[in-house]
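Troubleshooting: if your tokenizer reports a length mismatch, compare against these two reference records.
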Amino acid sequence: MRYWLFKSEPSEWSWDDQVAKGDAGEEWDGVRNYQARNFMREMKLGDRGFFYHSQKDREIVGIVEVCAEAHPDSTTDDPRWECVDIRAIEPLPKPVNLDRIKADPELAEMILVKNPRLSVQPVREEEWRHICGLGGL
């Protein structure tokens, strides 16, 4: 299993929106960055990801699971763009904000710290475990 981080502006698509989709999940559509798209192409069923509220909140709020591997993005006719489907698994009891992540030496190499604009990114297993601990899991 691999680990990922999915960023969304809560005013566009929030954790609550994701939870409301239930076990069927929802496409992680609209990504128009080649690197983020390529990361989605690497994802496998059952991979886990952090759900991150960007913009104002800037915090990891929940855990999602990949429930459909890469397929054409339904929001465009351009065949270059693909997406995965994700479903909500559980909220973090204590959201972990970006300031906390940046202040933690164990997370200094995390892509979220080094390239915060990337909307879909991998998370190393040790980063995953550390953040889950910070979040109360």
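Reference record two:
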Amino acid sequence: MESNQTLELLSAMDRLRRAWKNASPGTSLNKSQFFTLMTLRNKGRQDFFPDCCNPGDSFEPMTLSELSKAMKQTMPAVSQRIRKLEELGYVERTQDQNDRRTIWIRLTQQGYDLLKETCHTMFERLNRVLERVNQNGQNNAQQMIEAFHCLADAVQTEFERDKSE
């Protein structure tokens, strides 16, 4: 592989990281909080709806362990985020009636309302990004998404190997 291409990849990845860092759901939530609420709302499923509203779905609770596993993040990181979201009134913790060691985390109505508004804003903005990518009438967005998945898989495989050695 040419070193110029390697440097271009490094530069492009860093530029995308910086651009994504500036992306915001457009509310008082940061991206980590937004995705935590999304995951909690969808009980860990990845079938997000543009308005974050699954028809007929109630605010089913999750344990911290389930939430951190679904998000593929450490329990301390998710716990700290949940603590902040709880202070803001967007989630609540309740103790299980049958097993006092189990703590359930669920969205509050205030959290759901904010999430629904935030989802709408975030999906609108990302749709405008996709329109820019598809400006020439070709479906470049789908190719780009597939390329991102391929790149993420390759980077993950390469750098996870470092952890196991």
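Descriptive notes for reference record two:
- Residues 25-133 form a domain with the Arc Repressor Mutant, subunit A fold (CATH 1.10.10.10).
- Residues 109-133 form the longest helix (25 residues).
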